[in-house]
Amino acid sequence: xxxxxxxxxxxxxxxxxxxxxxxxxxxxxxxxxxxxxxxxxxxxxxxxxxxxxxxxxxxxxxxxxxxxxxxxxxxxxxxxxxxxxxxxxxxxxxxxxxxxxxxxxxxxxxxxxxxxxxxxxxxxxxxxxxxxxxxxxxxxxxxxxxxxxxxxxxxxxxxxxxxxxxxxxxxxxxxxxxxxxxxxxxxxxxxxxxxxxxxxxxxxxxxxxxxxxxxxxxxxxxxxxxxxxxxxxxxxxxxxxxxxxxxxxxxxxxxxxxxxxxxxxxxxxxxxxxxxxxxxxxxxxxxxxx
Length: 290
Prior knowledge:
The protein is mainly beta and 290 residues long. It has a domain at 201-290. It is built from two helices and 23 strands. The protein has a 23-stranded mixed β-sheet that branches. A hairpin with a 2-residue loop joins strand 5 and strand 6. It is elongated and about 65 Å long. Mean pLDDT is 87; it is low at 3-23.
């Protein structure tokens, strides 16, 4: 075969790979941010699922974006670093004219960081998973399920619509949701769980000792709390439409029934402690031992 023929054949062989290379460039993005100390990460996404997890003994933040059915050019990407503070914004650009969204479209943002950090994250649409991190952890979501596992520190979550599940957590927790059920498990010294529409289930692990006034509130849903045998608190319980069931030894200081299923009572568990208020407008309240 002549040299010119060989060159032509080689060029033809490369052609099928060119679209694939272009597609990779259009559909993925990655960057590593080196660190010298404890990091602070400000992250904001619109239409994307986000996964946060530790990177072992690394001294960097790694962010990777993967898209299916859309291109990077469909998004606004704004990122930067100042010392150990990193900001990352990834938001879908406004669409002009008619736009069809297919179920196969999805955007995944993966974040790897040192285990301890300060996090301020906002997502408008997409599931969020946060595993194995500790520190000041703040998360605000608009629409999507939230899963946190093996997290510790000051945990703050605001969720618009989506199921919230938090397991093996430790520290102080503050969760506010508009339309979601809450499943929370951990060892806490302060608890604030508030939902407008959904049930609340709280599992307090052995060793839990509340040191700050805590509260659980739901406008429409039941409340179930499972506590260790030596759990101590001053309980203030209100149910507008539902019954109250407490299987722990309790000293009742005040009880009032407003007729039907509406009840208010105050009592001390194991001699009492810091205040813990439990209020539900429509649902039962159950307190039992682990």
